[in-house]
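Collaborator request log, item 7. Partner lab (contact: R.S.) asked for a structural prediction of Heavy metal-associated isoprenylated plant protein 3-like to inform their binding assays.
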Amino acid sequence: MGEEIKKNDDGEDQKKEDTKQQEKKEPTESAVTPPPPTTTTEDEQKKQDNKKNEEEPPQDIVLKVDMHCEACARKVARALKGFQGVENVTTDSRAGKVVVKGKGADPSKVCERLQKKSGRKFKFFLQVPPPPAVVTVVLNVQMHCEACAQVLRKRIRKFKGVESVETELANNQVIVKGVMDPARLMVNINLSDDFFCFIHSTRTTLQQAFTSG
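Returned to partner:
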């Protein structure tokens, strides 16, 4: 009886030993390292598209050219198409206007090319972005004395875009001129404890977007 119990104990010990060896051979889940994430081609394509969108559009070179007919216009277009930096050429024989598009186009070289190939008289215009509109705003503000007006002028001059400030004590009005948002200017003044204002009127001055050369 005692021998049978001993044999059973030996068998159980052997099973435990076999189980331990099997566990050592089989790798655990924690030991397996996942592969590093890879960048997909879609992500790369999106980055390239965003980079293209951020690029500035090509600047237009506008020329006033002496053209009598469509044949003249075609001759001018042939002289400029394919030239260094030129991407597109549009001609209008009736208006005598030629528009050259190309980010790498040099205006001086384009003019030299046109003069050399066509021999026609022309005037060069460089299209530039329009300057920001200048706003003149009249504010109604309660001012008791010249000291109040001086403090108010000093505060308004600190506002971004303000070019000039004039106060009229008799009418309790302030005339502000500059490139700014009148509504934001009003809010900025009303944030102080000393003054309260509202917009009486505004006037916007537009400027030309072309300069001749």
